[in-house]
Amino acid sequence: REVIEHILKNIERIDLFVQELMQIDTEEHAETEAEERIIHQPTAVSLPEVSHGVRTLLEPKCRQGGITLTEDFQPDAIWVHVDAEELRQVILNLLLNGIEAVEAREGTLHICTHRLASGFIRYSILDNGPGVAQDTEQHVFDPLVTTKKHGTGLGLFVCKRIIEKNHGSIGYNNLEAGTEFWFQLPGTENSHD
Predict the structure, then answer these.
(1) Among 4, 9, 48, 188, which has the minimal tally of Cβ within 10 Å of its Cβ?
(2) Is the whole-model pTM more than 0.85?
C-alpha cells in the first residue's frame, strides 16, 4: 500500500520529467510547459527525506533483484540548498543506474553523505557492479551516450544539468570493486537557513 501511495504521488513528477526530456534542446530559449505549471525554487531540503522517498519507491525492484541497499547520512551532511523536485529526479536516476549495474549479481548499493571543507554536501551512491567501461569514461555525462540495451543516453546528462543549475557538481569514481556516483550541493545547517 505504501508503494502504491508513492507511485500515485509521483505520477505528476514523472510527467514533468518526461516533459523536461522532450524540451531539453530548447530549454535555454523558452520556458517549458512544466516550468510554467510549477515554479521551482531552491530551498533547504533534507537529503535523507528525499532519498527515503525514492528508496521506498525502488525497494520492490531491489528485493526482486536480491539487492541490498544501505544508508549512512552524516548528521552534519543532511541539508542542501536545491530544488526538491529536481533533487528527486537526480536521486531516482542515479539509484536506477546503480540497480541496473548490480542486479545481475545480487549486488549491494550504499548511499552516504558527508560535508566537504568547502561547506558543500556530497551525496554518494556506491555499488559493487562492473564499473564504467574505459571507452565511455570521458563521455558518461554526454547526451545520447548509453551502454544499456534500451537506454536513451539522457539520464546522466539530465542529472548533470540539474545539479549544475543548482550550483553543484557531479561525477563518478571507478573503485576497486564497483563505482561511486556522487553529486555535491551547497549545504545549509538546517531547514531554516
Answers:
(1) 4
(2) no
